[in-house]
Amino acid sequence: MDNYFPKWNQDRIVYQWKNDRLRIGADDVDVLEITGYSDFWSDLISCCNGINSFEEIKDLLRKKYDISENIIEKYISKFSDRNLLEILDRPVNQIDHYLINESLETYYSSEGIGGIKLLEKLSNLKVTILGCGAGGSHIALQLAQLGVGRLHLVDDDIVKENNINRQSMFTFNDIGKYKVDCVKDCILKRNYQCVVTKRKLKMSTVDAVKKEISESDWVFCCMDEPPYIAQRLVNRACYLFNIPSIYCFSQRSAGKLLFCNPNIQNIGCVDCLLYEQDSDNFQNLVKKFSNYDGKLITANILTNILLLSSWVVKKWLDCVTEKNSNVWNTLFRFDFYSFREDEFKHFSKQSHCPTCGHDFDKSKLWEILKIDE
């Protein structure tokens, strides 16, 4: 441990309390209290500044307190296990852009999901966002602000007047501009380290989606039109390339979320979920949706959009960090009224699925929801 650099997470207040006690933290559920030798503990914590090496910390404390190296190492390890400090492999002042990411690093370390290591992992990810409307644009921004290093934005739409009141990234000055241009500009103003590429394209075939998602680590499908078809196109392309994907939808009262991953055995996909719903009634319903030629207005508010995008991105972060990776084979629902997440629909991998199955069933559903390869 001599060449490592302990760094105390400075999101917890450290203060002396009654009868020579040291208290760490003010959170209702996460306060550590140490009895006795409060001066020693205060000095130990002060030494763990991310610049002093473990060897230097040992020397400083042994001179003042005549304490063994093993005890110092033991308690630094205990603090690390409690997510109170992070063990760095180099001094914090040698980490590029640390001050920009200080809040992120402290949060990640205090949550026990990685600190600097997680920042480095996120910075090496490429995430593709398909659809940069209200949901997709806010998801892209939040991913960039989490530290995702590369984003690819795809959308052929332009900003319209009726987009403004449910967005926080577009202004009236952006009307007539391409959404991907506006989203890229907004992201780079907040995280200039993020590499953002964009494509002004309407994706209507699996091949078109494949060209946009190649080399991606994750794909977010934020397209809602045409219903079912858009999700099927992305699902097929992601399975052909073995890329995990996320599908999110928003209605006036709730948002829905689905995770898919072709790299994990027995995990179903979008088509598996559709196959489980297949019936004459479902097929008739899909036909009604597909043939509807009336004008629909997106009935939603920015408040709900921000709730949805934050929920989606946080679920993704928990999955990536394995803090909660139990997200598969479930359609999740987030209620905008109760602020509650529910497991709306469970499903399983289907052997008759046209995308990930091995015994394709030629249901009429796939003719109704036909996709072009």
UniProtKB/TrEMBL annotation:
Q: Does the keyword Membrane apply?
A: no
UniProt GO molecular function: nucleotidyltransferase activity; thiosulfate-cyanide sulfurtransferase activity; ubiquitin-like modifier activating enzyme activity
Q: Which InterPro entries match?
A: ThiF/MoeB/HesA, ThiF_NAD_FAD-bd, Ubiquitin-activating_enz
Source species, domain of life = Bacteria
Locate the transmembrane regions by residue number: none
Chain ranges of the THIF-type NAD/FAD binding fold domain: 117-354
Record keywords, A-Z: Nucleotidyltransferase, Transferase
What Pfam family is a match, any one?
Answer: ThiF
Q: What protein is this chain from? A: HesA/MoeB/ThiF domain protein
Q: What is its EC number?
A: 2.7.7.73
Q: Name one GO cellular component term.
A: cytoplasm
